[in-house]
Amino acid sequence: MNRSSPESVHWPSAPYRAALRAIRVVLAVPWRPSAAQARHGLPGAPQPGPVRAGHLLAAYCVMANARQLHPVVSLLLAPLLVGLIVGIVYTKPWWWPSQGYSPPTAAGRVLGFVGGCEAFRLHAQYRWPPFGAVKRAAPSVLAAKVGGFDPNEYVAVNGWVHAEIAYPHNPPPFNNDIWFHVADDSGWVSFGAVRSLPTSPAATNFDEDGGTPAVAPPQCEGAVR
Fold first, then answer.
1. pTM of the model
2. Which residue of 69, 180, 196, 211 is most buried, as measured by CB atoms within 10 A?
3. What is the 3-state secondary structure (H, E, C) of 52-120?
Protein backbone atom coordinates (compact mmCIF):
# COMPACT_ATOMS: atom_id res chain seq x y z
CA MET A 1 0.00 0.00 0.00
CA ASN A 2 1.45 3.29 -1.07
CA ARG A 3 1.60 6.17 1.37
CA SER A 4 2.41 9.76 0.71
CA SER A 5 5.54 10.92 2.40
CA PRO A 6 5.05 13.36 5.29
CA GLU A 7 6.70 16.07 3.21
CA SER A 8 4.03 15.77 0.49
CA VAL A 9 1.09 16.29 2.84
CA HIS A 10 0.01 19.92 3.14
CA TRP A 11 -1.81 20.08 6.46
CA PRO A 12 -4.04 23.18 6.87
CA SER A 13 -2.11 25.82 8.77
CA ALA A 14 -3.57 27.98 11.54
CA PRO A 15 -3.89 31.05 9.24
CA TYR A 16 -5.62 28.83 6.69
CA ARG A 17 -8.17 27.58 9.21
CA ALA A 18 -8.73 31.10 10.54
CA ALA A 19 -9.25 32.41 7.00
CA LEU A 20 -11.78 29.67 6.32
CA ARG A 21 -13.74 30.73 9.39
CA ALA A 22 -13.53 34.35 8.26
CA ILE A 23 -14.90 33.40 4.84
CA ARG A 24 -17.97 31.90 6.47
CA VAL A 25 -18.50 35.08 8.51
CA VAL A 26 -17.97 37.46 5.60
CA LEU A 27 -20.18 35.57 3.19
CA ALA A 28 -22.90 35.38 5.86
CA VAL A 29 -23.21 39.19 5.94
CA PRO A 30 -26.88 39.84 5.09
CA TRP A 31 -27.66 41.76 1.95
CA ARG A 32 -28.76 45.25 2.85
CA PRO A 33 -32.02 46.28 1.11
CA SER A 34 -32.43 49.75 -0.27
CA ALA A 35 -34.83 52.19 1.36
CA ALA A 36 -37.53 51.44 -1.23
CA GLN A 37 -37.06 47.69 -0.86
CA ALA A 38 -37.22 47.92 2.92
CA ARG A 39 -40.48 49.89 2.81
CA HIS A 40 -42.12 47.20 0.72
CA GLY A 41 -40.61 44.22 2.50
CA LEU A 42 -38.47 43.17 -0.46
CA PRO A 43 -35.15 41.40 -0.04
CA GLY A 44 -32.00 43.32 -0.75
CA ALA A 45 -29.84 42.80 -3.81
CA PRO A 46 -26.42 41.22 -3.33
CA GLN A 47 -23.76 43.73 -2.37
CA PRO A 48 -20.37 43.47 -4.10
CA GLY A 49 -18.37 43.98 -0.90
CA PRO A 50 -18.94 40.63 0.87
CA VAL A 51 -18.57 38.67 -2.37
CA ARG A 52 -15.26 40.30 -3.29
CA ALA A 53 -14.01 39.96 0.28
CA GLY A 54 -14.82 36.28 0.16
CA HIS A 55 -12.85 35.89 -3.06
CA LEU A 56 -9.89 37.69 -1.50
CA LEU A 57 -9.94 35.43 1.53
CA ALA A 58 -10.22 32.34 -0.63
CA ALA A 59 -7.14 33.37 -2.60
CA TYR A 60 -5.25 33.91 0.64
CA CYS A 61 -6.25 30.44 1.85
CA VAL A 62 -5.05 28.82 -1.35
CA MET A 63 -1.68 30.56 -1.15
CA ALA A 64 -1.22 29.76 2.52
CA ASN A 65 -2.20 26.12 2.12
CA ALA A 66 0.04 25.66 -0.91
CA ARG A 67 2.89 27.11 1.16
CA GLN A 68 3.47 29.83 -1.40
CA LEU A 69 3.63 32.22 1.53
CA HIS A 70 6.17 31.81 4.26
CA PRO A 71 4.44 31.12 7.63
CA VAL A 72 5.91 34.31 9.12
CA VAL A 73 4.69 36.31 6.12
CA SER A 74 1.24 34.76 6.50
CA LEU A 75 1.06 35.79 10.15
CA LEU A 76 2.20 39.32 9.32
CA LEU A 77 -0.32 39.67 6.51
CA ALA A 78 -3.29 38.36 8.51
CA PRO A 79 -4.05 41.65 10.40
CA LEU A 80 -3.66 43.64 7.19
CA LEU A 81 -6.02 41.27 5.42
CA VAL A 82 -8.66 41.59 8.14
CA GLY A 83 -8.54 45.38 7.93
CA LEU A 84 -8.76 45.24 4.15
CA ILE A 85 -11.79 42.96 4.30
CA VAL A 86 -13.59 45.28 6.73
CA GLY A 87 -12.92 48.17 4.37
CA ILE A 88 -14.22 46.24 1.37
CA VAL A 89 -17.44 45.22 3.09
CA TYR A 90 -18.37 48.51 4.73
CA THR A 91 -16.84 51.28 2.58
CA LYS A 92 -16.24 52.20 -1.04
CA PRO A 93 -12.70 51.17 -1.98
CA TRP A 94 -10.79 53.85 -3.88
CA TRP A 95 -9.70 51.33 -6.54
CA TRP A 96 -13.30 50.54 -7.60
CA PRO A 97 -14.27 53.77 -9.43
CA SER A 98 -16.35 51.92 -12.04
CA GLN A 99 -18.71 50.05 -9.71
CA GLY A 100 -21.45 52.67 -9.90
CA TYR A 101 -21.11 53.91 -6.33
CA SER A 102 -22.23 57.48 -5.68
CA PRO A 103 -22.31 59.62 -2.56
CA PRO A 104 -25.64 59.46 -0.71
CA THR A 105 -26.50 63.06 -1.55
CA ALA A 106 -29.81 64.34 -2.80
CA ALA A 107 -28.17 66.23 -5.66
CA GLY A 108 -26.75 63.02 -7.09
CA ARG A 109 -30.09 61.19 -7.13
CA VAL A 110 -32.84 63.70 -7.87
CA LEU A 111 -34.56 63.36 -11.23
CA GLY A 112 -34.43 66.58 -13.26
CA PHE A 113 -37.31 68.68 -14.57
CA VAL A 114 -37.86 70.81 -17.68
CA GLY A 115 -40.65 73.26 -18.42
CA GLY A 116 -42.82 74.49 -15.61
CA CYS A 117 -43.36 78.07 -14.56
CA GLU A 118 -42.49 80.63 -11.92
CA ALA A 119 -42.34 79.22 -8.43
CA PHE A 120 -45.53 79.25 -6.38
CA ARG A 121 -46.34 78.27 -2.83
CA LEU A 122 -48.13 75.24 -1.44
CA HIS A 123 -48.39 73.83 2.09
CA ALA A 124 -47.48 70.39 3.41
CA GLN A 125 -50.73 68.71 4.46
CA TYR A 126 -51.81 68.57 8.09
CA ARG A 127 -55.12 66.84 7.47
CA TRP A 128 -54.54 63.09 7.49
CA PRO A 129 -51.79 61.08 9.16
CA PRO A 130 -48.97 60.72 8.45
CA PHE A 131 -48.80 64.51 8.56
CA GLY A 132 -46.40 66.55 6.48
CA ALA A 133 -45.01 65.87 3.02
CA VAL A 134 -42.28 63.45 1.98
CA LYS A 135 -39.81 64.74 -0.60
CA ARG A 136 -38.59 62.07 -3.01
CA ALA A 137 -35.86 61.86 -5.62
CA ALA A 138 -38.34 61.13 -8.43
CA PRO A 139 -42.12 61.29 -8.94
CA SER A 140 -42.67 57.81 -7.52
CA VAL A 141 -43.37 56.32 -4.11
CA LEU A 142 -40.53 53.87 -4.81
CA ALA A 143 -37.99 56.67 -5.24
CA ALA A 144 -35.54 57.46 -2.46
CA LYS A 145 -36.70 59.80 0.28
CA VAL A 146 -34.48 62.88 0.16
CA GLY A 147 -36.19 65.07 2.70
CA GLY A 148 -39.57 66.29 3.83
CA PHE A 149 -41.71 69.15 5.06
CA ASP A 150 -43.41 69.61 8.40
CA PRO A 151 -47.21 70.00 8.57
CA ASN A 152 -48.32 73.29 7.02
CA GLU A 153 -44.72 74.18 6.10
CA TYR A 154 -44.37 76.20 2.92
CA VAL A 155 -43.41 74.17 -0.14
CA ALA A 156 -42.17 76.18 -3.11
CA VAL A 157 -42.79 74.37 -6.39
CA ASN A 158 -42.26 75.41 -9.99
CA GLY A 159 -44.25 72.89 -11.99
CA TRP A 160 -45.73 69.44 -12.09
CA VAL A 161 -45.89 66.21 -14.11
CA HIS A 162 -48.22 63.24 -14.48
CA ALA A 163 -46.55 60.17 -12.99
CA GLU A 164 -47.36 57.44 -10.47
CA ILE A 165 -50.43 57.65 -8.23
CA ALA A 166 -49.08 58.10 -4.72
CA TYR A 167 -52.27 57.62 -2.70
CA PRO A 168 -54.76 55.54 -4.70
CA HIS A 169 -57.09 55.09 -1.71
CA ASN A 170 -57.48 58.81 -0.96
CA PRO A 171 -60.78 60.44 -1.89
CA PRO A 172 -60.72 62.54 -5.09
CA PRO A 173 -58.90 64.67 -6.05
CA PHE A 174 -56.18 63.59 -3.61
CA ASN A 175 -55.76 60.24 -5.40
CA ASN A 176 -54.52 61.60 -8.73
CA ASP A 177 -51.16 61.09 -10.46
CA ILE A 178 -49.74 64.61 -10.21
CA TRP A 179 -46.32 65.26 -8.67
CA PHE A 180 -44.93 68.73 -8.01
CA HIS A 181 -41.30 69.60 -8.62
CA VAL A 182 -39.70 71.47 -5.70
CA ALA A 183 -38.43 74.83 -6.95
CA ASP A 184 -34.88 74.45 -5.59
CA ASP A 185 -34.42 71.20 -7.58
CA SER A 186 -34.13 69.19 -4.35
CA GLY A 187 -36.93 66.70 -5.09
CA TRP A 188 -40.58 65.97 -5.75
CA VAL A 189 -43.77 65.94 -3.65
CA SER A 190 -47.01 64.19 -4.52
CA PHE A 191 -50.33 65.95 -5.02
CA GLY A 192 -51.83 64.23 -1.99
CA ALA A 193 -49.05 65.52 0.27
CA VAL A 194 -49.69 69.24 -0.26
CA ARG A 195 -52.56 71.70 -0.13
CA SER A 196 -53.19 75.21 -1.38
CA LEU A 197 -54.00 76.45 2.12
CA PRO A 198 -52.98 75.39 5.64
CA THR A 199 -55.04 72.57 7.13
CA SER A 200 -55.83 71.13 10.55
CA PRO A 201 -56.19 67.47 11.57
CA ALA A 202 -59.46 65.79 10.61
CA ALA A 203 -61.77 64.60 13.38
CA THR A 204 -61.38 61.00 12.15
CA ASN A 205 -59.27 59.19 9.57
CA PHE A 206 -62.46 58.57 7.60
CA ASP A 207 -63.19 62.27 7.05
CA GLU A 208 -63.19 62.75 3.28
CA ASP A 209 -62.71 66.51 3.56
CA GLY A 210 -59.03 66.76 2.75
CA GLY A 211 -58.83 70.53 2.74
CA THR A 212 -58.26 72.89 -0.17
CA PRO A 213 -56.54 70.88 -2.95
CA ALA A 214 -53.26 72.07 -4.40
CA VAL A 215 -53.51 74.07 -7.62
CA ALA A 216 -51.80 72.60 -10.69
CA PRO A 217 -51.99 75.34 -13.35
CA PRO A 218 -51.99 73.93 -16.91
CA GLN A 219 -49.19 76.29 -17.96
CA CYS A 220 -46.96 74.83 -15.23
CA GLU A 221 -46.97 71.29 -16.59
CA GLY A 222 -43.47 70.11 -17.44
CA ALA A 223 -41.60 66.87 -17.99
CA VAL A 224 -38.94 64.84 -16.24
CA ARG A 225 -35.46 64.65 -17.75
1. 0.54
2. 180
3. HHHHHHHHHHHHHHCCCCCHHHHHHHHHHHHHHHHHHHHCCCCCCCCCCCCCCCHHHCCCCEEECCCCE
